[in-house]
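Encode chain A's predicted structure.
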Amino acid sequence: MTGDWVSLFSGGKDSSWALYRALEADLNVSRLLTVHPEGDSYMYHTPATRLAGLAAESVGIELTEVEPGELGADDVDDSGQQGDAELEPMEAALREIAAEDEIDLAGVTAGAVESAFQTDRIRGMCDRLGIDLFAPLWQADPVELAEAMFDAEFEILIVQVAAYGLDESWVGRRYDAAALSELLDLRAEYGVHPLGEGGEFETFVVDGPHMDRRIDVTYDAVWEGDRGHLVVTDAALE
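Encoded structure for chain A:
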């Protein structure tokens, strides 16, 4: 598949895996695109997206960022309308990228696993733009996906949790084989998804084979009784 590809990128494990697989497939990923949602979002990974710039620098691919003020999804009545509204700035950014003289936009990569809500909207956007979608995680077995990430030596930090069975010890924990084993036990008891696909937890990739330098993250852990997150106090490339 010739032409330029844009990787929809948050820095989390799923979008990072989609990027990694695209690079393995020799797709010419010439741009990363990060949307910074404000508050809860139906379409986007929300925590730690401000670290995407460091991740992009480590990967060595130019980053385009869409700021919260550009989202404009306040005056909507339901989740479907909000999802459509949240997609608009991404599509506008892709149109701007496609208009650049040096860009021949062929498609986008996405890290969706099971969410038809997100994937259907991204596919519709690609159809409108006349480009392809590369979604290597779509409908794959979540345990096999996690194990593939571990085998590839992704170093994954859990930056937010919000699910029964996940206590404050999970905030800032490494998502690795030991964590996955515990999550499978929690899936049987509480229904926790092993990839956090239901919003049970969110992640950030601090190192991987597609990155030149590891990201060192300093943070405070915040626990709010039944959920928690990291507040990043410093981050730098090692």
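The mean pLDDT is 90.
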